[in-house]
Design goal:
alpha+beta; binds adenosine monophosphate; single chain; binds magnesium ion; two-stranded antiparallel sheet; globular; six-stranded antiparallel sheet
Length: 537
Amino acid sequence: MADQALLTLENLHFDNRFTRLLPADPQQGKQARQVFSACYSRVQPTSVSNPSLIIHAPDVAGQLGISSELCQSDAFVQLFSGNQTLPGMDPHACCYGGHQFGNWAGQLGDGRVINLGELISPQNKRWMLQLKGAGRTPYSRSADGLAVLRSSVREFLCSEAMFHLDIPTTRALSLILTGEQVMRDMFYDGHAALEPGAIVCRAAPSFTRFGSFQIFASRGDTATLKALLDHTITTDFPHLGAPNQTSYVQCFEAICQSTAELMVDWMRVGFVHGVMNTDNMSVLGLSIDYGPYGWLEDYNPDWTPNTTDKAMHRYCYGQQAAIAGWNLARLAEAILPLIGDAKALQQALNNYSTIYNTLWQNMMADKLGLQCFEPQTDTVLIDELQRILSLCETDMGIFYRKLAMLDATQSLEKTNDSELMRPILDAYYKPDEIKPDTQQQIANWLRSYILRLQQDGRSNAARKQHMNRHNPKYVLRNYLVQIAIDQAAMGDYSEIHRLYQVIQRPYDEQPAFESYAAKRPEWARNRAGCSMLSCSS
Ligand code: AMP
Ligand code: MG
């Protein structure tokens, strides 16, 4: 059986354009080093002692042409733990740089990611497969190249949650326990401890980052910069035609567009990435590198899940679009030497803000169930909504789902504040403590919203259906993942499987999983992993 499975996995077809066409690091071996004039270093995954599969995503496997039976085979576990490679693969780690928290950090690179190769799927789609946590590479610096179970559970589940929310993302094929123990100081407080090691196999058409270009620009290496941009256009943006000055600018415009779309999506569902360094920004506008991310519960634009960002709040919810713009400006600077025309890039950057604002307004209109955004009425309506969401602790996700159930045909004349608020009361963390003045402000907003809906003329049922398609009922609340992680640490993976089931239908009512849509419980308010996370992973 295992032999047959291996045979079939061996039939997977790889076409490694990245390593075939781009310059390689001539030096062999894993020792940490600065790599010049090369996009990657060939490196083999480190073998692990006792790999076992915790979970896999059947639909990702299906996309790749790997059957569910194969996913259960020993050959699959050996392959996606890095213990074996297939003849068509060409394992390598990429060289990139990045701005971390606003400062240029120099060479970073795949310190614990090993790309296996570019799989060509049965649908003729290109998928780069990579193992995260597969051991040291030339880019590991002083770190170990490994990943622990808790961060790998978070990466697997969030990749797939994003996909099912219809948000562009890298995908996760599998989560494998390595059988090794990994030393981590989770809170950076001198209390290092052993944790189970794990490997996630990620898949995406490409993992090229803003920082992939920055590293060559920072070194004045225009030749490698040009090779990578030409390759990116031919492989990831083929519709732009041959690489030249025009398609360079068009490529940057396309990155601005997809980045704006991604930011609007994140804002819509309350996702906070937490580490929007330029090395964590995909040129395909994918959500990438799930570290200390979080989901907004209490609506607070200033919230960041990342303990490293506690003082600055650089990567907080409300800043994400502006930070993406800042990162795009760094990418523009990096490719400028190939274009020479700063004006065209500046224009694209200006357009980014315009595109984002328009998309954001349309998204807010969708969240509110309006037929379209009417600037004259809706600018004030939405500004005011953001203000009232911040008045007292309000669960953003629940708020919009409850709002969808509001009766827009009700007469406002005799309805008092508390009656008006009753349908949305469940969205509040401390409903009994809402002050009369706050209640009045919220009720007044509801009045203007209902009047606006009456103008809009959509039926209650049609509006609800529309709103529920844009406002997820189920998101991967931090405390839910933390429960799954705590159980996994004791060898029980059932909660990971349950969460995986829930996140596959985020917009639907799932009566059996009602509790997964509830407000964060009080015990989780300040618990590590539920409120804030460190970068340690
Ligand atoms: P991140 O914050 O996860 O995006 O990582 C930033 C940089 O640090 C990237 O170059 C990673 O490859 C590298 N890195 C993070 N963790 C490790 C690790 N355990 N071993 C080696 N490199 C790492
Ligand atoms: Mg990263």
